Amino acid sequence: MHPMVKPALRRGWRDLNTVQFGMTPAHALTLGPVDTATGSFLEQLNGTRGLALLREEGRRCDLPDGQVDAVLEHLAQAGLLDDATAAGPAAAALRDRPDALDRLRPDLASLTLVTSRPGEALDLLAARRATRVQVRGAGRVGVTIARLLSAAGVGEVDVRDVGEVHPWDVTPGGLPAKSVGARRTEAARGAVRRSAPQAPRRRSPAARTGGEPGNTLVVLAPRDDVAVHTPDPAVSAPLTETGTPHLHAGVVEATGVVGPLVLPGRSACAGCLHAHRADRDPAWPRLVAQWRCRRPREVPPCDLTLATTVAGLAAAHALAFLDGFVPSSVGARWEVSLPALSWRARTVAPHPACPCGGAEKAKGERTSMDEEARETMAGQRPTTVSRHRADAARPTGTWRAHV
Ligand SMILES: [Zn+2]
User: Fold this and answer.
1) 294: number of CA atoms within 13 Å, CB side?
2) Separation of 146 CA from ligand 1 center, angstroms?
3) Which residues face 336 on adjacent strands?
4) Which of 45, 238, 268, 348 is most open to solvent, judged by the fewest CB atoms within 10 Å of its CB?
């Protein structure tokens, strides 16, 4: 082990004996009281020295016997310590590809802020390569989501859609201008390949033989704005039946939508959303029937910056889930409208009449995603990396650890 105080956290002394790691309330911690000798010793924790050398440095800094180990233990408990050498098999493989790792260094540094175990951030980053995401919808939102996930290290990103690329599909983060007129799915897949930090993982055997491989996550990003506003439960039903987590995202008129992220049988789905709306508004089913029976507009409104914003947030929610966290889109739809651009979350609870079974699970529980549900979903992931809750991965606010 080569201990390293997480370099992603900016360090500052609040007074002579108290050091603050990090700047923002979400991740900052204070450590104290810290005497001068220990404060100097912290500088040695930069990942270049092993334990034996650090103990030697401790003696040189006049630290009492055992103090080096005590400091390291306290830092580790506070989640402030990383290990420059720790690596499981996947992490070791990523270390062996410095060109790919260099592309992802800011992402790795960011992951150290939401993980606690030394070496865990690299394990999570490397584990993305074993995940498979399918994005349905290759318009302004869908292709950007797919490219972002690919660039963030997701090993297999498949895109599905029909038809050809139109000039208005071209965006800086999505389809390139040269793809106009090309088949939409092929153009999107090419853009995804070019975004990856390293060569794509070999396609799963089922995909190569034309079968349907298991997806870690499916993102539903339809180009049709009716499907964004009121996702058809029949479309996502097969995903619910196979227990496939799926995330809804898109732009409808001048509103961007991210969520819900559906954990089948555990949290609210498109059917729950539709049933709640019908409960609140008797005219809802009649409106939906009219919207759906009209032909989709060839050029629906879709502001470029709004589409990119939605894609960025949707990809972030997807990645948080793939990394083992439970993002806030589980049981909620995040919405943002032009021109004020204030994000708001609309809670989507499981509906008792929905066949997804989410309501039964939620019965008698305080929220739709209880502790047991989170643990169970954790067990369904193909990765061996331990999972966390987004709201419990790290304590929020400034937290004091004593050395
Ligand atoms: Zn449901």
Assistant:
1) 12
2) 26
3) 256
4) 238
Architecture of domain 131-379: 3-Layer(aba) Sandwich (3.40)
Cα of 268 to ligand 1 centre, how many Å? 5
CA distance 370 to 61: 49
Kindly report, residue by residue over 227-280, the tens digit of the pLDDT: 999 999 999 999 999 999 999 999 999 999 999 999 999 999 999 999 999 999
> CA-based Rg of the chain, rounded to a whole angstrom?
24
* Residue 124: strand, helix, or coil: helix
Domain ranges for the chain, please list them.
3-85, 131-379
Tokens found for residue 297 = 């507009």
Could you tell me which of 99, 94, 93, 81 has the C-alpha nearest to residue 45? Answer: 81
Centre of ligand 1 to C-alpha 233, Å, is 8
Classify domain 3-85 at the CATH topology level.
Answer: Outer Surface Protein A; domain 3 (3.90.930)
In this structure, are residues 112 and 121 in contact, taking their beta carbons and an 8 Å threshold?
yes
Q: What secondary structure letter does DSSP report for 233?
A: H
Indicate if 131-379 has the same CATH topology as 3-85: no
Instruction: Record the pTM.
Output: 0.88
Q: Tell me if 54 sits within 8 A of 68, measured CB to CB.
A: yes
Q: How many whole angstroms separate alpha carbon 77 and alpha carbon 95?
A: 26
- Chain segment 363-376, per-residue pLDDT in tens: 755 444 444 333 33
CA of 245 to the centre of ligand 1 (A): 13
Gap from CA of 276 to ligand 1 centroid (Å): 10
**Ligand 1 centroid – CA 185 distance (Å):** 29
What three-state secondary structure class fits 57?
A: helix
Tens digits of residue pLDDT in 74-90: 999 999 999 988 778 99
**Among the ranges 52-56, 63-67, 292-296, which has the highest mean pLDDT value?**
52-56
Look up residue 169 and give its amino acid. Answer: D
